C-alpha cells in the first residue's frame, strides 16, 4: 500500500468540510497515529486555532510560545518530547507555495517515528494544505477556524479580496499583513505571478468602515481587470482612475502604489498614485525609495499616469507600507518613519519575508501613542533574482 497516494485519493474524494477527519482515519490505520489535529493560523497571525477539538487541545495555541508555533515559524517539522506512553507529538507545517496555513500535529508511538514516516507525514501536510485551499471555495469550515473573534463586515470584505499572505518563487519571496486584522477597512494588497513578471499593488481607500472597503474593492477589481487585459501599469492606473471617478465624481479616491518586476532582469516599473511608500534594505542600509508622486485614483477625471523605472538587485528587501505605518506617532510626537521603521527593518533582516510584516507591525504597536490602531499594511518582497541556470 502506498499510504501518501491513498491519502491523496481519499482527500480528493472527501467532503470539503471533512478533510481533517479523513486524514485522521487514514493516519491511524496506516501509521498507527494515536491522535491527529490540524491547527490554522488566525487572521492576526498570533495564535494557532484547532480546526476541531477531536484530538489535542481545544484552545488556541501561541504562535510565539508553543512547540507548534516553533514549527510554524521555522517551517520545519518539530518533534515534541516522548511521554510516558512512549509516544510523541510531531508537528508538520501546512504550507502552500509559501503561504503558511498552519500545523498538522500527529502523535506517534516511538517505534513508528522513522525517517521514512516523517517524510511521508511531511508530504501529507503538504497535500492537506493544497486541499484546504481548494475546499475553501465550498465550505466556511476552515475560514471559521481562523478566527479568534468576529470580523467586522468591512474586514470580511477585505480579507475575501486578498491573495495569499505569503508566496515564494525562485526569484522572490513575498509576505504581507493587515492590521487591525479583525477590523481593517481601507488598506489592501494584491499580487499576480507570471512566468517572467510579478505585479504588485498596495491600495488604501479613503474613509472608514464599509465605505472605505467598498471603495478599495472597486479599485482592486478595476486594477485586476486592467492587468488581466495585458496592459501596462500606467494604463492600469488610468483605467482604475476612470472607474472610481465615474462612480464618485471626485468625492472619493484611492491611494495606490503599483510595481511590476521583470524577473529575468530585475527591472522594476513603478506608479506612485498616492500615499503608500516604498522602502528598501540593501546591505545594512535602509532608505525610502523616492518615487514621482502622482494623483490618487479617482480624484480627477481622466488622470494620466507615468511609469518610473527602478532596478532590484539580488539581496534587496523591499517594503511597501501604508500611511498607517509610517505616519504613526509616538507619545513624544515622533513619526514611525523617522527612526522606528528603519530600526524595525534592520532588526528583522534575518527573518524570512513571510515573518517580516508581523514583526514590523508589532514594533509599530509599541511605538504608537494611542491604543487605537489605524489601518496599517506592510508588504515585504525579498528579491533573489534569476540565476543564469534559471533562465
Name the shape in a single word.
Answer: globular
- Mean pLDDT rating: 94
Q: Give the oligomeric state of the chains in this entry, treating copies of one chain as homo and distinct chains as hetero.
A: single chain
Query: What is the structural class?
Result: alpha+beta
What is the strand content?
25-35%
Give the helix proportion (percent range). 25-40%
Radius of gyration: 22 Å
Q: Low-confidence spans: pLDDT under 50, at least 5 residues?
A: none
Q: N-to-C terminal Cα separation, in Å? A: 40 Å
**Largest sheet: spatial strand order:** 3-2-1-6-5-4
Number of strands: 17
Count of helices?
11
Specify the biggest β-sheet.
6 strands, antiparallel
The H-and-E topology, N to C, reads as: HHEEEHEEEHHHEEEEHHEEEEEEHHHE
